[in-house]
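Example record for the data management plan.
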Amino acid sequence: MKRIFVSLGLAAAGAAGLPSAVAQDLAAAATPKIWNVSSTLRGFYDDNYAVAHNKTGSFGLELTPSVKANVALQQTDIAVKYTFGAYYYFQRADNNINPWDYTHQGDIWVDHAFNERFKVTVSDSLVVAQDPNLVQGGATVRANGNNFNNHANVTLNSQWTRQFSTATHYGNNLVVYSGDSGTNTPGVNPSNAALLNRIEQNVGTDFQWEYTEQTMAFIGYSFSWVRYTADQPIAFMPTSPGSVYQFSNARNNNTHYVYVGLDEEFSPNLKFSGKVGVSETDFYNDPVSTYTSVAPYANINVTYTYIPGSYVQVGFTQDQNATDVVAPSSSGQLTQFQKSSTLYGTINHQITPKITGSLVSQYQYSTYENGAYSGSTGDSDISAGLNFNYQINRNFSANAGYNFDELLSSINGRGNSRNRVYIGLGANY
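Corresponding structural encoding:
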């Protein structure tokens, strides 16, 4: 387990989100060929394209071209990628509604080795979309407009001795909703922008000790600060003689993470990575009552490659995330965020030299921190995807798949379910 320069494995991305996975895809894409162009054309049926409690389904067409380039220099690797998505919904066209959705995603990955002991890795991913699965903003319904999420990371790996190293990291996540789905009444049915526009930043260091080539233990600390940026009223608390409005920044918070971890390579086919610890969050800006919350923290995964090209991966995370639920308690304290436990798994199987199948699944249970639903109400988010890909030749492939998503919630009108099937062709050059 050589640890002078270490990049995050696929398992670490697991449930942590799209930007990390894209950065790893770019890192793995370093080939003698400088550029690559690809595109996918699919027909699909989506029985709940608005991702709403009341379903509306539609057949449609999807076109997703992308271009990728990478340059490998003596001490620096650079990769960039842009993907455009165009989605046409027949049901919306039949009802004289704009049938098109457009998405944009741009990614960059830079890896520079100053020398044999010090290396820095920079990645950035920008997504502009309407579907909450892409924006990752915490909302549970489709939002009109060019909503975007920018996720950036910088990591400095330093090898101080043969066994001791550090990994110092900084992350920045920006979420902006441009559409306004709320009402004009202050504090009543606030928009996604009011509830979710924010900047999340974190900085920390892992202190790593390599016992053997296969075993590394570490202890780490990270500090995170979240600032809501909309400056709009999101709730009000009846008082005498009037009402006091609470604004977006009432959910600002700071969090300290302390954890220990272990990376273990039991064999070339079986790898484990995990860290467990505790988080302490300070809600310093709540106008009703400032307080701190202490919770467990974990990120654990195991990857087993049972034959070349085929692997199984399972993982578990415990952390907190933003939510579009803000309902205050009777005392006026807002719902601040969700505490989420996530179990995920992936099976990728090389059925034949030309046919690959994959199964991806995830279960997340979330409870609300403070507010009207604190302690007694939770959300269960279930998702699964089955995909098959047939490599016709070096440049063309066929694919088909099915995706299922369901949100179970005891909050009236919040839950929804979604089924999507697709079949299409891919081209790569």
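Summary line stored alongside the record: The longest strand covers residues 291-307.
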